[in-house]
Amino acid sequence: MTQSPDYSERPWMDPEAEPFIKVQSVSKHFGDFTAVDSVDLEIYKGELFCLLGGSGCGKSTLLRMLAGFETPSSGTILIDGQNMNDVPPYERPVNMMFQSYALFPHMTVEKNVAYGLKRDRVPGDEIEQRVSDMLAMVELTQFARRKPHQLSGGQQQRVALARSLVKQPKVLLLDEPLGALDKRLRDQTQYELMNIQEQLGVTFVVVTHDQEEAMTLSTRIAIMDAGRFMQIGTPTEIYEFPTSRVVANFIGNANMFEGRIIENGDDHVIVESKHPDCEFYIDHGMSIPEGTKVWVALRPEKVRISKDSPDNADSRTNMIKGMVHDIGYLGGSSTYRVQVDGDHLVEITSPNMLRPKEAVPPIDWDQEVYLSWDASSSVVLTK
Asked: pTM value?
C-alpha cells in the first residue's frame, strides 16, 4: 500500500491544500507610477513568508494592501476565503507590526500590550490573562512595569510583537521588523521570532530587504523587482536554483559567465564560455537547443582555489586559471577575487578550516592560481 506524502511542513506542495491568503492579479497605481504590477500570490496557513526586494520594488505597498491601508487599483485579495477589497483595516483578521515599533512612551510594557484589547472592550480578567501569557511567551514578564525607554532595542521589538499578537490575529504583517537592531541582536532575534511563530501557528508575512534575514526566517520567499515577482520558492530553491540572472545576483553573490550550449545530452550539458580556456560541464540534461546563448551562474563557495593545478588541469572543463587580485580575510572564511581572461573577476569564498601556523596567508596577492568546481555546481540561465 502506497503511503500518502506528508505535506504538513510544505503545504504549498499539496495539490489539495487551500491557500490561506490569495492575491489575484493585484495592481496598485499611484498616478502614472505602477508600484505593484498584476501579481498573483498564494500563502498557506502557518507559513512564515517573506517578501524580499530592494527599495521601491513594491513589497511594502503589497503589505499595506494586505493590511487594508491601501486599496488595490485592480485585482482581488482574499484571506481565509473572504474577499478583503472593501473591508477596512480594523475589521480584517490581521495585525501589523511596524519597523518603528510605535510604542506609547508614557505607558508601561503591560499597558502597551493591553492597549488593543482595551480598545476592543475585552473583559478585564481576560485582558490580564492574555497579557500575562503573551509577556511570558516573549520572556518579558519581569519587565512588565517598565517604560519603553528603559528597555533595549531587542526588548522593545518583543513588546511590539507581543502587542501585535495578543489580539490573536489570523495573519501578522511585519514591515522590516528587525531593521532597527544591530547585527548581533538581529541575528539572535531572528530565531526568537521563528520560535514564537512556530508556537502560535499564526501566519506571518514579513517584508525585508535583508537577504540573510529572509533566508533564515522564511518557509518561502517571493523576490520582487519593479512591482513584479521574479521568483517564489523556498530559501534553498531560490539560492540553489535561481531562474534568472536577477535572482542569482540578488540572493548572495554569483559569478556569471556568458556562453552558448555546444552539447546537450540526456545526462549532461556542455557550455562553451566566452573565456577561451573554460568550458562548463553540467551533470544534467536541459531542454535547450544547442547553440542557445546562456549564462552560467557559479556561487563563490562552490569554487575551489589552489596554487597547484588540479587533476584535470590539462582539460578546459570546469577549470580556469587566473591571478589573485584581492583578498578579504573574514576570520571563519576568506574571500578571493581572481582576475581571469583580462578584466573578468571571479569571486571565491573559502572556509578557513585549519588554524595557520603563521600569519602569512597560504595564497597571496598577485599569485597565479587555479579555480575548479564540480559538475553539479553550475546553474544554466537563459534570462
From this structure: 0.85
